Amino acid sequence: MTINRRTLLAGAATGLAAGLISRTARATGSYDPGASDKEIRIGQFGPLSGPVSSFGVLANAMDAYFRMVNEQGGINGRKITFINYDDAYSPPKSVEAARRLVEGDEVLFIAGAMGTPGNIAVQKYMNARKVPHLFLAAAAGKLSDPANNPWTMVSGTTYEVEGAVIGRHISSAFPDAKIAVLYQNDDAGKATLTGLKGGLAARASQIISELSYATGDPTIDSQIVQMKVSGADVVSLITIPRMASQALQKMAALNWKPQVYLGSGNSSTRSSLKPAGFENAQGVLAATTRQDPGNPLWAVQRGMQDYLAFLDRYVPNADHADDLYAIGYTIAATTSHVIRSCGDDLTRANVLRQATNLSNFAAPLLVPGISMSTTPTDYVPIKKFQLMRFRGNAYEKLGDLLSVS
Q1: Residues 90-134 pLDDT 10s
Q2: How buried is 361 (Cβ within 10 angstroms: 0-12 exposed, 13-18 middle, 19+ buried)?
Q3: CATH match of 160-288+387-403 with 3.40.30.10
Q4: Fewest Cβ atoms closer than 10 Å to its Cβ: which of 20, 44, 107, 290?
């Protein structure tokens, strides 16, 4: 093909015009604090120190993801500035961090903030300021309540939905069960318990032992003894990983073998089952939405391979089996998807609009078949779960996806 001077000039003129249009579009973009032609500032807070500082690796994963995005040219030509603060899992410090991010750093929005108590503490402030408070690493239903707090949304499901799914499965698989429940006596534990009873429906009366513990309790041995004495043959553990491990160990010591159900927050092979001893976790059932990086079951998934390559390059010292890195990765990817969807309209209202109009978004590391969907009146992105059963030293899939409907 022959290219003459006229063709070159025409091409140059077209390119120049396109460049001018692009620059004009960028110059006339809509911006709120935290966004410009070159930058988008995103805030986050969570426990980088204190009793649950291990959760801080979630923020490390988000930071690494945005570094990767920036190396690749940013999003729509803009680099991400990720600013996160330590709240030591203390709600007053969460409020302080949120104010600093919004009023001092002037972030466009907050994403991936960790912890139910802290996020509840800042919710009123964020909504009064009309700053998006999105994809939170927390799951209380009140954090996805568009009627009362339209600027706040969780990253996956809610405790109530998860509890309901487990309750429905117990009701179906063990209709004559005598049920014992151990729950953490806080917003998260109570919300999951409410969902569990809703899922059990008429069979909620089959709960014959309902016990709680406080986060500061050293052990839950006495509760497990009481649950065994009750005669229960199905147990729902609504606990943090440490207490789930203790419960499984104590059941083994008592030679008590009920069917145990765990949830997404305490079913980690690395954090819950390995410390309990794999021999004490055989047959445990868990409802999950994400692929566990430590499980060979997911090794062939392209998304998992991409994730592990990401860790090797951007977080080389990361423990591949720590699923908190995976959660941070998924949240950062979802946040990036929303920003990309905003185009040049980088206002807080449009960020919220895009986040509340997700349509079957297959975020990385979700179990195949599970996706994220939201509407302006439905702020719970994930409503399906995969039931898993622990065998040997890993979970295996059990049946089709579960949902509350």
Answers
A1: 999 999 999 999 999 999 999 999 998 899 999 999 999 999 999
A2: middle
A3: no
A4: 20
**Does 1.10.287.130 match the CATH number of domain 39-157+299-374?**
no
Residue 131 · residue 307 · CB < 8 Å: no
pTM: 0.88
* Two tokens, residue 12: 């140059």
Res 12 pLDDT > 70: no
pLDDT digits (tens, 9 = 90+) for 179-232: 999 999 988 899 999 999 999 999 999 999 999 999 889 999 999 999 999 999
Q: Which residue has the tokens 């392209």?
A: 302
pLDDT of residue 28: 64
Mean pLDDT (whole number) for 232-261: 97
Domain spans of the chain, in order of start: 39-157+299-374, 160-288+387-403
pLDDT band at 61 (very low <50, low <70, confident <90, very high): very high
